[in-house]
Amino acid sequence: MGMTISEKIFARASGSKRVEPGDYVVGKIDLAMIHDLTGPLMLRVLKEVGYDKPWDLEKVVVILDHQVPANSTVTAELHKELRAYAKKHGLKNYHDVGRQGVCHQLLAEKYVKPGMLVVGADSHTCTLGALGAFATGIGSTEMASVFLTGELWFRVPETIKCELKGKLGKGVSAKDVILKIIGTLGVDGALYCAAEFAGEGVRTLSIDGRLTMCNMAIEMGGKTGIINPDKKTLDFTGVKEAPLRSDTDACYNKVLEVELDKLEPQVAEPHSVDNVKPVSEAGNVLADQVFIGSCTNGRLEDLEAAASIIRGRKVNEGTRLIVIPASQSIYLEAEKRGYLRTFIEAGGVVCNPNCGPCLGGHMGILADGETCISTSNRNFVGRMGSADAKVYLASPETAAATAIEGRLADPRKYMRS
Amino acid sequence: MAQQKGKAWLFGDNIDTDVILPGKYLVLTDPKDLAKHALEGLVQGFSTKISKGDIIVAGKNFGCGSSREHAPLALKHAGVGAVVAKSFSRIFFRNAINIGLSVAISKDAREAIKEGESIAIDLEAGFIMKENGKRIAIEGYPEFLLEILKDGGLLQNLKKKFGKETRK
């Protein structure tokens, strides 16, 4: 019996020839990341321990990304703490205001390679599985332990395989695929499991699209999303040697097939991520706000798709459009290509790279009774502000069409051939 | 830590971290401040309504969503003695143990226990005792996790390894 890519990574990281789902292993960590909300809590733990030097200065990454630039004196203090910590230890991998991006995007651009075991003090760390790494979120106390020891215990997860068949039609993108999968499996459908996205369909997706898919594995309880590396992965990460991949006779505890050709744009209605239906069946949903951004959909391909729909049109008068690129390099490239100008000319707001309103931090918090169509990843009660607001999750294409019409809209009619 | 006694508070499935501790409070790091907002998304004034040691009894996928340790910290410091659920999101489960909040998985507890009922949990023995003396099974977990809980969390464990005394 062969092994999945996840099992192979745990075998390598724990110095074993073979591991099985259910085994408890201690893995050596290749990369550990904290940010401005979970990092300070970790520092609090280290302070109590009385020792705070990372086990390996090269393997820790500190990123300010949730509320950037600081939106209050409280946030400013958190930033100051992390800045001082990075300075104290001379951390090279420290990303301050203007040199950062949403943590998972920055890790993808600069740090993660196939086969790595990555932990981040953020649940969406699973995003990085798109590059053939095993990447998962942990809490702050556990991260304190990782910072000191460089290792962590894991239960080797079972793997659910999502086999993508065919190719997506115009106006339909990776976000629609992952929403469809979560809608099918449910918010605990992959609890404690690795969700491996496979099949010829996944090969047709860009790295941006793959990151979007793996990003949302946590929304069905997954420990990571993961995709076997191919040429696109090696080109993106600059790796030459053959990476770890799942064996053809690896064991999966469930296989789900998804037909991409037939897929329509999808939406997750409030207040659960598995509350998914086709946009065409969602009825009349007025949008007070549209948010395009986040670690799910703030990448160049997302901004390109949204800009191509919005170009030459205006944002509906009843709707506020907020666009936030996921990193400085995306911000710059989107500026160069004219996407940002398109959003601004249409009557939208473009903010600097950070998490923005996704988790209700700042830059577009919702009032009582308001509705936001968002490209982010969670539509929980109170997620983007008021507990009486509603969040609908959709693709950048759907969000862009919605911004124009002022109500939830199917983007396929805007596709230019 | 291995034994807890308190009044049951019943909740449903998929209680997420945004209702346990809304994102706007993530800038707080003092557990006492976090505690004031525990479960604010579901029960206004939860922290003033519960008695120390009370036990949350919930459905499946408790704590789904964010990796925020602020969520179990808020519950613990609001006075919650333990959380029993049909299943937990994995990050919440790990976080709870690491900060010394008892968590127990039980397939039957949610249906078998009434709101406000006095119950007692024994993690080591692996059961919940109801008011009428009936026992409900809970899943056991590995010895090393029980040890962390008995220590009161991972911090003590780290202190043993990295504290001043050790490094001399």
Describe the structure.
The complex is a heterodimer of chains A (417) and B (168). Chain A is an alpha/beta fold and 417 residues long. Chain A contains 14 helices and 18 strands. In chain A, helix 2 packs across helix 5, helix 11 crosses helix 13 and helix 11 runs parallel beside helix 14. The longest helix of chain A has 17 residues. The termini of chain A are far apart. The model of chain A has no long low-confidence stretch (mean pLDDT 97). Chain B is an alpha/beta fold and 168 residues long. Chain B has a seven-stranded mixed beta sheet with strand order 4-3-2-1-5-6-7. Chain B starts with a strand and ends with a helix. Classes of the chains: A alpha/beta (417), B alpha/beta (168).
pLDDT under 50 segments of chain B (min length 5)? none
Compute the average pLDDT of chain B: 93
How many strand segments of chain A?
18
Q: Provide the structure class of chain A.
A: alpha/beta
CATH class of chain B: Alpha Beta
Question: What's the pLDDT, averaged over the residues of chain A?
Answer: 97
Spatial strand order of the main sheet of chain A:
4-3-2-5-6
Radius of gyration of chain A, whole Å:
20 Å
Number of domains as seen in the coordinates of chain A: 2
The CATH class of the largest domain in chain A is identified as Alpha Beta
Largest interface: A-B, 51 and 43 residues
Output the keywords.
heterodimer; A: 417 residues; alpha/beta; Aconitase, domain 3; 2 domains; five-stranded parallel beta sheet; 14 helices; B: 168 residues; Aconitase, domain 4; 9 helices; 7 strands
Fold blueprint:
The complex is a heterodimer of chains A (417) and B (168).
Chain A: H1 5-13, E1 24-28, E2 31-35, H2 39-49, E3 60-63, H3 73-89, E4 94-95, H4 103-110, E5 117-120, E6 134-137, H5 140-149, E7 151-155, E8 159-165, H6 174-185, E9 194-198, H7 200-204, H8 207-215, E10 224-226, H9 231-237, E11 254-259, E12 266-268, E13 276-278, E14 289-293, H10 294-297, H11 300-310, E15 320-324, H12 328-336, H13 339-345, E16 349-350, E17 371-374, E18 390-393, H14 396-405
Parallel strand pairs in A: 2-3, 2-5, 3-4, 5-6, 8-9, 8-11, 9-10, 14-15, 14-17, 15-16, 17-18
Antiparallel strand pairs in A: 1-7, 12-13
Helix pairs in contact in A: 2-5, 6-8, 11-13, 11-14
Chain B: E1 3-10, H1 17-20, H2 31-35, H3 46-49, E2 55-58, H4 70-78, E3 82-85, H5 90-99, E4 102-105, H6 109-112, E5 118-122, E6 127-129, E7 135-137, H7 143-151, H8 154-162, H9 164-167
Parallel strand pairs in B: 1-2, 2-3, 3-4
Antiparallel strand pairs in B: 1-5, 5-6, 6-7
